[in-house]
Amino acid sequence: AQSVTQPDIHITVSEGASLELRCNYSYGATPYLFWYVQSPGQGLQLLLKYFSGDTLVQGIKGFEAEFKRSQSSFNLRKPSVHWSDAAEYFCAVGATGGGNKLTFGTGTQLKVEL
Amino acid sequence: DSGVTQTPKHLITATGQRVTLRCSPRSGDLSVYWYQQSLDQGLQFLIQYYNGEERAKGNILERFSAQQFPDLHSELNLSSLELGDSALYFCASSPLPGTEAFFGQGTRLTVV
């Protein structure tokens, strides 16, 4: 069964500092990988996705993520964090095929200090 | 705007009652998912439909049921409600199962 681990429950960074949120997945084949962001009281918004090809993917709001098969990781990065990036971030794994759902990690709450 | 519409946005009801949450997926999306989000349980997958058929089941209670209609909209029925059912319920849709899902704004259910 597929699973996702986000080891950091909370992360605090200063505005302007770089950010890396960790995500490790478990899946038998090449997965589809996603990062979502959720602001308080809102739905989840897709930041970026990896299906195949280039292992470094660019997303919206200046985020990027790198797929590393050897480490079963898909970490999210941003070179300079803005106060508006404070939110909860979810990593998810999925794949096409019968009955495949998206499996989400437990989320990382990002706090940005001004 | 993700293109996924959920109604109602807020719902307050009493214990023991039954409610129906409605979801209209993005145009062209055949797959619909339902998730429950609460403070203590996080984001929990409930059930998935693809083109009207149930495709995957998660941590969905027997008191809960769902269906996807021929026009692809979906409904989640919650019955014999308990205080612990209070949560945000999200619907998401995707073109194919397992690909990127687009989430609605959720229905906040409060059971009193």
Produce a short descriptive summary.
Chain A has 114 residues and is mostly beta strands. In chain A, 0% of the residues lie in helices and 51% in strands.
Structure keywords:
heterodimer, A: 114 residues, mainly beta, four-stranded antiparallel β-sheet, 12 strands, B: 112 residues, seven-stranded mixed β-sheet, globular
Q: How would you characterize the overall build of this protein?
A:
The complex is a heterodimer of chains A (114) and B (112). Chain A contains no helices and 12 strands. By secondary structure, chain A is an all-beta fold. In chain A, the strands form 3 sheets. In chain A, strands 2, 5, 6, 10, 11 and 12 form a 6-stranded mixed sheet that branches. Chain A has a 4-stranded antiparallel sheet with strand order 3-9-8-7, with no helix packed on it. A two-stranded antiparallel ribbon of chain A has the order 1-4. The model of chain A has no long low-confidence stretch (mean pLDDT 92). Chain B has 112 residues and is mostly beta strands. In chain B, the strands form 2 sheets. In chain B, strands 2, 4, 5, 6, 9, 10 and 11 form a 7-stranded mixed sheet that branches. In chain B, strands 1-3-8-7 form a 4-stranded antiparallel sheet, with no helix packed on it. The mean pLDDT of chain B is 94. Classes of the chains: A mainly beta (114), B mainly beta (112). The interface between A and B is medium-sized, with 24 and 25 residues.
